[in-house]
Write a structure and sequence with these properties.
The chain is of the alpha/beta class and 240 residues long. It folds into 2 domains: 39 residues, no CATH class; 192 residues, Rossmann fold. 30% of the residues lie in helices and 15% in strands. The chain is built from 8 helices and 6 strands; from the N terminus they run H-H-E-H-H-E-H-H-E-H-E-E-H-E. A 4-stranded parallel β-sheet has the order 1-6-5-2, sandwiched between helices. A two-stranded antiparallel sheet has the order 3-4. Helix 3 crosses helix 4, helix 4 crosses helix 6 and helix 7 packs parallel to helix 8. The longest helix is centred in the N-terminal third of the chain and has 13 residues. Bound molecules: zinc ion (2 copies). One zinc ion binds next to helix 2.
Length: 240
């Protein structure tokens, strides 16, 4: 009741707009994005590659449960899952979150990613966000991966530190991306909690897997039982 009144007052006084499509928000307390944009997020549906989580063309293609051309090098990551492809409304949302500085979008993505656990065959004990370099986090004001991870459900463990300020990955090729981030991460004091546990590394986008593989390599030093990866989006899907 009070929330509805507040929503009404905020909508009337401030006329806030959706961070993605610009439509007026009826219920600004629900976040920076309108329900239509959230409903328009493209999502993967099964069958999925058991390892990289990419959608498979049909059930016959699922030889051994994996895609024929698993195109990502995930290093020590046993399996990865994403909400959907990095395109359309999902790409718009991630862009608005990071560059439009809308941290509430990361939380909204995390809530919608909770169902991804179910497509993995195990319980997740801890979620570990891929860290930003402190300088980049200061510039942005938040780490979107940490906000996504905090909304996923399992306990949050910020076990990694980014010690190298890497150049933006956007333009680099697969091999260059892997070289770019190798050694960029290190386990910190929180990493003690990881030992013997099933850990989900969390990031906003999985592209070549370079960043997640480097983060996982650093996490391995803390001896988790198993590492999986959860991301909001998957970019550069291989044609198959
Ligand atoms: Zn919208
Ligand atoms: Zn695959």
């Amino acid at each position: 009741m009070i929330r509805a009144l507040l929503d009404g007052a905020l909508a009337a006084l401030l006329a806030p707009c959706c961070a993605v499509c610009g439509a007026l928000l009826d219920r600004p307390l629900d976040g920076a994005v309108c329900p239509t944009c959230w409903a328009g997020v493209p999502r993967f549906s099964p069958p999925l590659c058991a390892r990289c989580g990419d959608p498979l063309p049909d059930r016959r293609a699922a030889a051994g449960g994996c895609c024929a051309v698993c195109s990502v090098d995930l290093g020590p990551i046993a399996a990865a899952r994403a909400l959907g492809p990095f395109e359309g409304r999902l790409a718009d949302l991630i862009h608005a979150c990071k560059y439009g500085r809308r941290p509430s979008i990361a939380t909204g993505l995390g809530h919608r990613m909770r169902a991804l656990h179910g497509t993995l065959s195990e319980h997740i004990d801890l979620v570990v966000p891929v860290p930003l370099h402190p300088r980049r986090e200061r510039e942005r004001g938040f780490n979107q991966a940490a906000l996504v991870a905090a909304a996923l459900g399992p306990p949050l463990c910020e076990a990694l530190t980014r010690r190298v300020h890497t150049s933006p990955q956007a333009a680099a090729s697969g091999a260059a991306r892997h070289a770019n981030v190798r050694g960029a991460f290190a386990p910190n004091r929180e990493a003690r909690r990881v030992r013997g546990r099933v850990v989900a590394l969390v990031d906003d986008v999985l592209t070549t897997g370079a960043t997640l593989a480097a983060a996982a390599a650093a996490l391995e030093a803390a001896q988790p039982a198993r590492i999986v990866a959860l991301t909001a989006a998957r970019a550069e899907l291989a044609r198959r």
